[in-house]
Design brief:
Length: about 425
Amino acid sequence: MATLQEAVSYFKNNKGYDRLFLGIQDKYASLGLMGGSVTLADLRAEEREVLEGLFHRSFRSQQSASVSIVKLEKALKTTKFGEFTLKEIVEGYFVGTLSANRELRERAKERQEHFFNSVIRESGSSIGIKWLSDIFQSREVPYKTLLHRYHTDHSSLRSDLLKVMKALDCLPVYVDKVKRLPVFAAEISGNPHYLDEGSDGDRLFTYALCKIWNVPYQDVSIAEQKAELLYKAGILKDELSNYTVCYNIKAWKKDNSLHEGIEGFRTSKETVIFTIETIKNLSKVEGLHNLIYVVENPSVFGSMKDSHQFEDASLMCTNGNLRLASLLTLDLLAKSNTNIYYAGDFDPEGILIAAKLKNRYKDLLTLWHYTVDDYKLALSNEHIDDKRLHKLDKVECEELKDTIALMKELKRAGYQENMISLF
């Protein structure tokens, strides 16, 4: 009586079965059972010999053959290896258990679930566990990123997830503190560069912070918006080079005492630079007469500062892009119910900033010098291409509607320097 090993050896030594058994393996993976047919194109001589021996008919005139797997198994029952199933023979032939694609997918899914569940058990992070669990329930970002990293390098993914989940439970804001980004990164990972911009740790950590503060991930693609998100978590990024310029402004420290340094600049009629380092130690900021004028352009700020019209007014200059320092200062001003008059440039980027500020501070902020007439006065010869103009489609501020319509028609930028006589 032949053994299974002898049967497998026989079929391995007969080249006529090579493509046939490969086809059976593929068909089983597709169907999950021994069924269907295997097509052999461009029949070879050794294959014709095998088929003729099994099915007792000639295949010499055929260029190809469609072999029924069920009929093949019946034919094998009439051979000396008839006591073995076709599945047993093919599994021995390939030295492994045949599996359907569905079975393989289920096993892969089980391994994947086991991996992420083991990360959850190991982390012990209440906030991190909720974040990771929510991702797999909702399949929101970074679901695809996590799966990609799991399939490419699950070991480094495990390490990053454990560090980020640990970080979520010890954000400085929870204990009313502020820490510098490299210091915080070193605390959670031992590496001060772990959360450097663009790193795997940074991306996962940013995804998590976006979820906690309900901020769309695409909204933090701009550096200042990313810095604002980190600050919400009590983490400072580049606090010295991030600043805003103020004039004639009053501020109080965390202990509610007047800030002597800022008061000294005010009484000396000098501008003062507010860095993040300065702002984090303030509890309150006010404009004189409950009012502050905020402009985008430094030359306009300088002109206003030197003007008798504004000599007793509080002023602020954002200097182009709206840095985090400017936003935090404006937040403190709004908190003290200081009325904010804001004026900026007439280009798509400037209009977007104005609309963002109006949406943020509502009735406390007045859009200053944003009328159609103001735009005409500020006009330059700089052309605005359609790609930049399309940014204005996102603006829903009713006060800017007429000005935006004219900008789209004229396709020209306007700048504060051209209307400096109004300030």
